[in-house]
Structure formats: C-alpha cells, structure tokens
Amino acid sequence: MTRKQRRLMMIGGAGVVLVVAVGLVLNALRGSIVFFSTPKMVFEQHIGAGTRFRLGGVVEPGSLQRGDQLAVAFKVSDGSATVPVAFKGILPDLFREGQGVIAEGALDSAGVFKADTVLAKHDETYMPKEVADALKKQGHWKDDYEKKPPGAGPAASADATRPVR
Amino acid sequence: MIAEAGHYALVLALALALIQSTVPILGARLNDGGLMNVARSAALAQFAFVAVSFGALIWLNVTSDFSVLNVYENSHSAKPLLYKITGVWGNHEGSMLLWVSILALFGGLVAAFGNNLPLSLRAHVLAVQAWVASAFYLFILITSNPFLRIANPPIEGRDLNPVLQDIGLAVHPPLLYLGYVGFSISFSFAAAALLEGRLDAAWARWVRPWTLMAWIFLTLGIAMGSYWAYYELGWGGWWFWDPVENASLMPWLAGTALLHSALVMEKRNALKVWTILLAILTFSLSLLGTFLVRSGVLTSVHAFATDPTRGVFILMILCVFIGGSLALFAWRASALKQGGLFAPISREGALVLNNLFLTTACATVFVGTLYPLALEVVTGDKISVGAPFFNLTFGPLMVPLLLAVPFGPLLAWKRGDLLGAAQRLIAAGIVALLVIALVFAWTKGGAVLAPLAIGLAVFVIAGALVDVVERIGLFRNPLPIAARRARGLPRSAWGTLFAHAGVGVALIGIVCETTWNSEHIAAMKEGDTARLAGYELRFDGAMQRQGPNYRELQTRFSISEGGRPIGVMTPSKRSFTTRNTSTTEAALLSRGVSQLYISLGEIDATGAVTVRIYHKPLVLLIWIGPLLMAFGGLLSLSDRRLRVGAPKPAKPQRALQPAE
A90, B211, B339, B447: least CB-packed within 10 angstroms? Predict the structure, then answer.
C-alpha cells in the first residue's frame, strides 16, 4: 500500500465512525430531548397528554397537599396560569411554597401534570433560569428574586428527587 | 491590611506575567540567552506572589474578617476551621484565584524542573503559559476581585452554602483544577512547538509526563466529585450528565486521547500534527469548562447566576486562546514534518482507533452539552438534554472502543498481527463468555444488556492481564524466571495493565449499580422495620443535636442480615439557621464493595420520618476503577524512561581552547 492509500483508508475509517456518531446524535436528539414550558405556554400550545416536558414556575402558596404513601400534589403557577402537579416520592429539601421549581413528566388525560422528577435548588434566593426569564417576560418579576444569589461551588450543589419505583 | 497586601500581590503577579509573556519571546527572536532566562525567574516569582495572594485570602477567611465582601458572603465565624479554609474556593472569586494559583504552580514547576529543556523551547513554553495567566489575572482583578472591602463591616457573615460544608470541597475542586489547569502545560508546549516550527520525539517525551500528571489529577477529581455528589445529594445518583460534569468529562476524554497519541509520537515520531491539535483542543475544552461553570450560562442543576460581565470576559478569553491557537495551528502545522509510516493494523493503528472513538465520544458530549444553549440563542426554545441522549450516543461509541482496548497493547508497532493478537486473547474471550453465561443464569433472564456489558468489562480486564502474562511468559517459563521478567518489565507496562483494568472495573460497577440497585421508600416510626435486599433495617429512634453552625436531627437505624446484627447507620438532617436551609446527610454502610444507603426526607405531622433506603450492589467499583486508572497513570509516570528524561542532542565537540 502506498502512503496515499493508507491515508485514504484512515480517513475513510474516521469518516465511517463520524457518520455513525452523527446518526446516533440525530436519532437521540429526536427522541430524548425534553422541552421546557411554563403553565401559560402549556395552555397556549395545547401540549398533548403523554408528551414529556419540563414544567417550571412558582409553587402556588397554600396548594401543597400530602396524600398517602408519599404522594404529594401542588400547583405550579407563573402568574397567569396554573397547572396542578402530582408527584410521588420525597420532595427536595428546598421545595417550598412560593418558590421556584422545575418538574419533569407529562400531562395525563385529566390535565394533571404527573411529575417523575422534581428539582429545586439549595438556595433560598434561587430561581430556575427559565422560570425567571418567563416571569420577567410576563412582567411578573418580583424584586426579591433579583437579589444576587450567593455563589455555589464548582461541584454538585443541586437537589433533586426521583420517583418511587 | 492583609486584604490590600493580597490584592497588591495579585497585581504584582500580573505585572510579572506580562513580563514573562513578552521578554522571553523577544529573547528567542534575538537569540539572547539572558532575555530567555527571564522566563524562569519570572515564572518562579509570579508563583510566589500568587501564593502570597492566595495565602492572604485563606488568612482572611480563617480570621473571619467580615470587612471583606467575599468573606462576608461565604463565611461565618462559627464555621469549623476546615470549612473556613475550603470555603476559600467554594465561591466564584476564590475558586478563580485557586485556578490561577495552580496555573502559576505549573509554570513554576516547568521553570524549576525544566533544566533539560532547550532554552528557547522553555522560553516559549513559559511565555505562552504567562499569556494564559495574564488573561486570568486581568479577569480576576477587573471582574471578580476577592479582596473587595465593605464600607460598614457587618458583625457576622452569611455562611457557606451548607451543601459545600463537607470534606468533599477540600478535595474535589483542587484535584479537578490540578487536572484542568495541568493541561495548560501541554497546550503551552504545543503552542511553543508551533511558534518554533520544530517538533521531534523528544518534545513528546517532555510533554507526556505533564499530560499524564494532569490526567491523573483529573481522573481523581472527577471520581471524587462523583462520589461526593453520591453521598451528599441524598438520592444515590453518582453521574447526572449535567453540563458541569460534562465540562470536566470532555477534557478528560480529549486528554485520554492525547496521552495515547503522544505515545505514538514519542515512540514512532508519527501523528505529530494530530497530537499538537489534541493538546490545543484538550486545554480549549478545559477553558470551555471554566467558562460553562463560571459564567452561569447553562441551565443546569448547578446553575450559577453571576453577572454577565464575567461571562463576557471569560468568553473573550476563550475566543482569543482557542481561536488564536487554532489559527496558529492552521498557519504553522504544515511546517511540521511528517513522521514514520505504519500499517493500519499496528499499535499505531490501534491508538489511532482509540483517538478516533475518544474524540468522537467527546464530540457527542460536546453537542449534548451545547446544543440546548445554541438552540435557545437561535430559536428561543428551551430544552434539556439529559441522560437518555448520552446513553444513546456516548454508550454505543464506548462499546467498540472497549472491545478494541485489549488488542492495542498486543499489536506490534509499525505492522501488527491481528490474528495472533486474537489468538492470544482467546483465553480472555472465553473467560468473558463464561461470565456472561453465569450472570445470565444467575439473574434468570432479567436484563439482557447487563450480562453482555459485564462480559465486555471482564474481557477488558482479562485482556489487560493477558498482555502482561504474555510479556513475562507466566505459564511458559518456570515461576522464578517469570518473576524476574515481571520485575524487569517497564513500569509503563504495569501502568497500562492497571489503567485498562480500571476501565473494566468501573464498567462492572456502573452496570451492576444501574441494573440491580433496589430502592425502598417508606414513612417510618420508631420501632418500624424495613426490609431490602436481604437486610432488615430497624428504626431505633431520633434525637436532636446541636452542631457548630447547625441543628441536626440524627436518626439511628440498626441493620441486621438474617437476624444477625451487622451495624448501625445514623443518617441525619441538618438545618442551617444562617441560610435557612437544610441538608440531608446520608448514611452509608459498605458490605464488601456494595453499599446500603439511607437518606431522610421530611417528618410528617404524626412524627413519622420519610426514609429512602437504597441497596447499591458493587457500587464502590465505580470509584475503585478510576483509582486503579490513576494508579496505573502513576506507575507509568514513574517509568524509568520518563525519569531519566529525554535524550539530549549530542553537544558539538568543543574545539580545543587556545592556551592563554
């Protein structure tokens, strides 16, 4: 084999791997990404039951109800719309009424958001970025969220819960 | 006074870095040894001043000087001493100071131990190092000065984020930064080689130990971070595919590729251009990681809102260094001569394959991490890319790579014998198949992929052993001879064994934990017993306790297996009054390399505690694997050929001096 043939072979091999990788990425991007919505967007976009997405907003004060077997129900609001959320499991330490939250899951046929993951942040002034943006856009931005949150470290500083399996 | 001294020392370090970044280059152009030697003393002095500055910040934290804004925001007088010290880098300003301190440390190390480097190469390397340092000094001094004072000092500080008040903060960030920033050395060497237009096997021999050192630290840093997240966050996850984690994984993947391609360059003088490019890319990914973490640009469970000036500043640094070095590469790379030839089936070919898969895997992580950001900028849609994406992309790319790992060391340089290698790996293959069959039979046809993945891991481990067994002729020669040959084997061969086996070990842990972990959540009252994976966990009771800066609800569980008591676990929930936050301190009980894990949820009105119990089979292997890899790296680092150093070009015979 000449030098040129060898190089062509190597480039060809690399090309094959890259094509495979691009295929994998495109396939995964189609199937496994999750969009973010606020309650208002949920109503505007008529998201169908069963479609997974992330719901972000503020936990409506007074809406938290605890049921049997670690079931909890609460409402997520962005000031102009409210979506009821059902979750089973342990809520993160920093889950509070009146504070920002992100839940991941899907709507059921009754319009209740069945969450399998609830994320809250280890910081009393923290507001999830998407929630803050959405609230700002709608003019519901509260001053007290604007305080600069104290810095977290470079490492894990989040808190999340997963479902009961 | 101390704060001002620290600030001033940092300014002086910047001044020294500016000198170090210009004068040696000028010296190299003018071929003036004196000017080139400025680099050495400047690098050492620069490190001394940064160390003073860093020491000043530690002192301010230890003495709880709340007239300094950074200390006020992140410390508290009641905080234990250890966290006063580690809290220094538990915030943005301090961690950037740690970043530059380590950068200066590495510059200082090259200056101190680089005596066998050609003078002009050392001058160039240290100058490039100083460019990076200058940029980051400016960043700290302009946007994130840790020494700012408050006009009316408060009496008490706001305390450190409780999650960070853990021994993990003492270990994880410094290790991670030693890794991240350590790659700056190979970057500087690459840039210096491009500037000089000269690159030989000796260059690779100088670069390899530095790369290896950075890689060892990064491996340990990532593993430590993962274990920290596992026990601190309270739900037993150890890897979240979070952008911040990906930010450290990308340089690790690229750095692993660099280690292997530098090997080809050192041994065979081939793949030069590619190695240079990888060195640039690896450090670029480290810079990208710094940007992602420090600018708060990504929506992440780690999200870190800081003011935009910082983000823009780091973005500028990022563009200048990545753009600049790639431009330099495009301009000068063609000047580098091509090296040795090799057949596709050869050790070199195997290492190319390794590089191909590692960089492709790195690229998929890159896409998954930055795609949401790009999409948000372009269309405004907000998406999150989580574990499913990476499982579908990163996972499949790792399978062929791991299958190929055992073949690499068995192939000869230049032209290898694939069939011969395969024959020698038959034993490893049989062992792997047996393990697959055993696991399959034992789990009675549960998960299909898990036994196959475990078989793959066993193949990697057995393959690594086969290489050494073959080289010392363990079963062909009598034992004493084999033992003598084992002693004579270069340490780098043992390093390969441990590093490759470590990959397999980690894979076994990952597969077992994700497939067979079991979980039990219940609201428990005193005297209740929960059962999980053959263990009985009895809730003995709870008590309130006062910690130095928190109150704690400590619970006690006695664990027994088949009626025989085996231990006590005391998970707790701490509430930190200063920040009005609480953390969950999970309790761990190791049984061999498996673990029981208890973390507490909230307490309901009836006094029952919500308890989450996990049984995680073989989970410790996930971190033992990286430890083995790092140990392998260490063995390789201590190899004689790196200790002895690169061969010097023969000195021209000195002509006879005329007698005076």
Answer: B447
Three-state secondary-structure class, residue B464: helix
* pLDDT (mean) for B267-286: 91
Q: Do A28 and B389 touch (CB under 8 A)?
A: yes
Name A102's bridge partners. Answer: A56, A119
Question: How large is the ipTM?
Answer: 0.74
Check residue A145 and report its DSSP letter. G
**Alpha carbon distance B223, B646 (integer Å):** 32
User: In this complex, which of B89, B244, B367 lies closest to A25 when CB atoms are compared?
Assistant: B367
Please give the Cα distance from B73 to B13 (Å, whole number): 26
Q: Do A93 and B229 touch (CB under 8 A)?
A: no
Check: CB of residue B75 under 8 Å from CB of residue B18. no
β-sheet bridge partners, residue A53: A35, A105
Among candidate residues B588, B616, B395, the one with its CA nearest the CA of residue B515: B616
Q: Which of residues 318-337 of B touch A (CB under 8 A)?
A: none
Tell which CATH classification among 3.10.520.10, 3.40.50.2000, 3.30.830.10, 2.40.50.140 matches the domain A35-161. 2.40.50.140
Closest residue by Cα to residue B387 from A49, A157, A33, A119: A33
Length of chain A: 165
Distance CA B117, CA B648 (A): 9
pLDDT of residue B644: 52
CB contact under 8 A, B388 and A14: no
Give the CA distances from residue A61 to residues A65, A88, A120, B592, in Å, rounded to whole numbers and listed in that order: 11, 19, 16, 47
Nearest-Cα distance to chain B for A1, in Å, is: 9
Residues of B in Cβ contact (< 8 Å) with A21: 360-361, 363-364, 393, 397
CA gap B518, B614 in Å, rounded: 6
B123, B25 Cβ separation under 8 angstroms? yes
Q: Is B352 on the interface with A (CB under 8 A)?
A: yes
Percent of chain B clearing pLDDT 70 (strictly above): 94
Which residues on chain A are in Cβ contact (under 8 Å) with B612?
A: 90
B229 and A155: CB-CB below 8 Å? yes
CA distance B427 to A94: 53
Each residue's pLDDT tens digit, B58-71: 999 999 999 999 99
Of the candidates B252, B304, B187, B79, the one whose C-alpha atom is nearest the C-alpha of residue B626 is B252
Q: Output the DSSP codes for B277-289.
A: HHHHHHHHHHHHH
Partners of B559 in beta bridges:
B537, B567
How far does B47 lie from chain A, in Å, by closest CA? Answer: 23
Confirm whether residue A145 is marked as ligand binding. Answer: no
Q: Provide the shortest C-alpha distance from residue A60 to chain B (in Å).
A: 20
Q: CB contact, 8 Å: B162 with chain A?
A: yes
Separation between Cα atoms, residue B122 and residue B128, nearest integer Å? 10
Residue of chain A minimizing CA distance to B612:
A90
Q: Which two tokens stand for residue B28?
A: 């190299």
Is B240's pLDDT higher than 60? yes
User: Which residues on A lie below 8 Å from B519 (Cβ)?
Assistant: 164-165
pTM exceeds 0.95, yes or no: no
* DSSP tag of B149: B
Report the half-sphere exposure of B47 (CA within 13 A, side-chain side).
18
Q: What is the DSSP letter of B646?
A: P
Please tell me which of the candidates B89, B301, B384 has its beta carbon nearest to residue A158: B301
Domain ranges for chain A, please list them. Answer: 1-33, 35-161
Radius of gyration of chain B (CA): 27
Q: Which residues from B are below 8 Å from A124, CB to CB?
A: 579-581
d(CA B273, CA B193): 11
List, for residues B519-562, the tens digit of each pLDDT value. 888 888 888 999 998 899 999 988 888 888 888 889 999 999 98
